[in-house]
Design a protein that fits this description.
- The chain has a domain at 1-50.
- The protein is 79% helix and 0% strand.
- It has eleven helices and no strands.
- It has helices at 2-29, 31-50, 54-62, 66-73, 84-100, 104-117, 122-138, 142-155, 160-176, 180-192, 198-211.
- α3 (54-62) runs antiparallel to α4 (66-73), α7 runs antiparallel to α8 (142-155) and α10 packs antiparallel against α11.
- The longest helix is centred in the N-terminal third of the chain and has 28 residues, at 2-29.
- The protein is elongated, with a radius of gyration of 24 Å.
- The chain starts with a helix and ends in a 5-residue tail after the last helix.
């Protein structure tokens, strides 16, 4: 695995070095002795631009090293050359990092690019739509937030924690709009999922204190 990561990290330089060796071999020994070096060098360079360093980014994301992940992402100089599904993931990750930095405008811009390209999985698309809904609500864009979160629920979310968070956000939106029957319905759906994330559990407890007193 370490060797594989090493190749991914340095494959552009390795590819260029192999092409240089191939050219010298071609000059002094002919094309066929140089063929393997030509082939491997071309494959490495192609992989650098077509697939990017996403395998390396995964390790940083899993360990929670967002700064390291961002450094790897910033190494991608020509994202338009990435394979389309990988390009979508690239922009989504850029959006996630921007959101962690509270750069909500930049995060929305990146995530929209990822969604426009089409996400590899519907659940991933739903998660991105939920995040965009959260950002819209933070900007007090109630209508935009509701539209994004409804779309996220239609697309499907990766786990019950995200689904519960979406239902709770919809519950809050409905309470703000004084659509109390809908608010109660979304709250029941969130509670039925039995989420375990402390923040979501606490939010359920807070809403439960007064939702029973609502009309409808």
């Amino acid at each position: 695995m370490k060797f594989y990561n090493f190749v991914i990290r340095y494959r552009l330089m390795l590819g260029i070095a192999l092409l240089a060796i191939a050219v010298l071999t071609n000059v002094y020994a002919g094309f066929w002795p140089a063929f393997i070096a030509y082939l491997i060098g071309a494959v490495l360079i192609f992989g650098h631009f077509f697939f990017g360093p996403m395998r390396l980014i995964q390790e940083y994301m899993e360990s929670g090293d967002m700064e390291g992940a961002e450094k790897i992402l910033n190494q991608v100089k020509y994202p338009n050359l990435l394979y389309k599904p990988i390009r979508s993931v690239f922009y989504t990750l850029k959006g996630n990092i921007a959101m962690m930095k509270q750069d909500y405008d930049g995060a929305e811009k990146m995530m929209k690019k990822g969604l426009d390209l089409g996400m590899p999985m519907k659940e991933a698309e739903g998660a991105s739509l939920l995040q965009m809904g959260m950002m819209a609500l933070q900007r007090n864009d109630m209508k935009g937030g509701e539209n994004y979160i409804r779309s996220a629920l239609r697309k499907g979310l990766p786990d019950k924690e995200n689904e519960a968070a979406a239902y709770l956000q919809m519950c809050s939106i409905m309470m703000t709009k004084r659509e109390f029957r809908a608010a109660k319905d979304f709250f029941r759906k969130a509670k039925a999922l039995k989420p375990t994330t402390p923040q979501i559990v606490d939010q359920i407890k807070q809403i439960e204190k007064y939702i029973a007193r609502m009309p409808g």
